[in-house]
Structures are given as C-alpha cells and as structure tokens.
Amino acid sequence: MSIPPRIGFIGLGIMGRAMALNLFKAGFQVSVYNRTRQRTIEFADIGCEVASTPRALAKQADTIITMVSDPAAMDGVLEGPEGVISAFKGGNTLINMSTLSPDYTAALTKKCFIAGVNFLDCPVSGSKSAAENAQLVILAGGKKEIVDKFSSVLKAMSRAVVYAGPAPAGTALKLCMNLIVAQLTTALAESAALAQAQGIAPGLVFEALALNPTLNCGYFNLKKENILKQEFPPAFPLKHMLKDARFMLAEAAKKNLSLPVTKAVESLLEKSYNSGYGEKDLSVVLRNLTEPLSRG
Predict the structure, then answer these.
(1) In a domain, 268, yes or no
(2) Final residue of a domain: which of 135, 167, 199?
(3) I want to staple 5 with a disulfide (CB 3.0 to 4.6 A). Which of 25, 63, 142, 234 is the partner?
(4) Are residues 27 and 64 in the same domain?
(5) What is the pLDDT of residue 291?
C-alpha cells in the first residue's frame, strides 16, 4: 500500500499482544485497546497510543484488527455507542483475526458491507511461540484484492497467508485446522496416559516419535514439556478449543455430517473445563485421563 495504514489493535491476550508488537516492530503506526487496561502499559511505554474505548480507537485508526476470545467479546468491542462500528464512516477496514463461528462471520461481513467497510476474515493457525516469532499462518477470507492490499500488514505477523475465498472461508478453514490440533493434542495425551498405565515412561513415546520421520511432528515437540512435566501454562487455553470444537460440531450438524471423533474430543474438553482447567493449555486434558490412575 502506498500510504501505510493507521492500525488500531483490539485484544492483547496471549496471541494479540505478540501480533500487535510485531506490527509495531515492522514500522506500522499502532494504537491499542484492551478491556484489561494493565495489558496496554507496555504499549504505552514504547510509544503506542492507548485508546479508552473501542470507538476512540476506531476514530484515530483507519484499520481495526480484532483478536478477541469469542463472539460475545467481539460484540462487546463492535456494538453500542462506544463500539468500533459507531465510529466507522465508510472506507475503513476491519480485519478480524479471532476464531468465531462461520455464521457470526457471515453476518459481520454483511454488516460491514452495508456500512461501506472493507472486511477481512483472517483467523490464524499457530500458537504462542508462532505469534511471538511472526510465524503464524493466516487463513484469509474476503475479497482477494483487499487481502492483497493488506499483504504487508498480514505478513508482518506471519510466515504465510493462505487465501481461502470469500468470507467466511477463512473461519471455515480455521475450524478445519483446529479440528486437527484438537485431535493431535488428545491423541498425544491418551498415548502418554496409556504408556503410564502400562508401566512405561511417557518420555519413550516422544523418543519413538522423534526417531520416526513419518510421525515426527513439530506440534508434538511443542507439547512435550507439558506432557512430561504435567505442567500446562497456556499457549492455547483449553476454553478456546472447547468453543471451537462446538463451532465445528454445529457446522457439521448443519451439513448432516457426523464427526464422531471430534464429538468425543469435545466431551473430554468439556470434562476438563468443568474440572476447572479452562485457563490452562488444552494439553491439560491429560489430567482427566491420568487422575483415575493416580487414585487407583
């Protein structure tokens, strides 16, 4: 783009914080808003403007990027007299990078069109470390020419952009990707639990995986310390994957498609959530698999 956009970034959680910092490091003018004000302090310290409301942010930026937890949080920053939409005058751009439902995203696409606002549906594939190192894969939906126009913005946060088609295609692809992540995680946890039940060290599972070029997977290595130490600092909080699994099942039901493994994964995630593990990394499902062994 000939004139760099003035970016307003909303949502400075595990992922959003790193993404906003990468935009700043790439030289973009970045302003921020976060519901928890304390998370904005480091941005103020490096010279970013901190807005008091989403509306105030949208009035000082021509491009808004959202990275929030769920549809309710998205409504909270978009709607109402202090929401982003109230400040749009047409010609603005909204880039949503949160994982929402396809139905919500389709409705948001229509709302932006009516308001004369460009909309990009750009959820990301990758976890905390990928966000910190600008190695995310962005799954882009929307008009191709708008995706291309904002390629420098998207590339400042990622290693690649995969164009999926008109919105909500980016969100649809994200649910497909997270289905795999959910099942990889539960497969790894179940494998470790089975190893423990048989009296062998779970570390042997990782050793065998690392030596097998077909099964050696970078994601498994990311979760290795969690599984072996049984410590679960959140790279991808379990509550977010539970939300996404429910989106997957809802989309499948609308298409009369059965996803029996994903349904089983959703049940395990729900059990872990109800055990009080929602804020921990989704690999914490291991605890619900091994606690009965510990009691036995």
Answers:
(1) yes
(2) 167
(3) 63
(4) yes
(5) 84
Model confidence pLDDT, tens digit, residues 67-84: 999 999 999 999 999 999
Tell me which amino acid residue 28 is: F
Whether pLDDT at 293 is above 80 = no
**CATH number of the domain residue 245 falls in:** 1.10.1040.10
Domain extent, residue 70, equals: 6-167
Residues 230 and 138 placed together within one structural domain of the fold: no
Alpha-carbon distances of 248 from 100, 169, 174, 181, 209, rounded to whole Å: 11, 14, 10, 12, 28
> Structurally, how many domains does the chain consist of?
2
pLDDT tens track for 205-243: 999 999 999 999 999 999 999 999 999 999 999 999 999
- What tokens were used for 102? 């396809």
Residues 153-168, mean pLDDT to the nearest whole number: 98
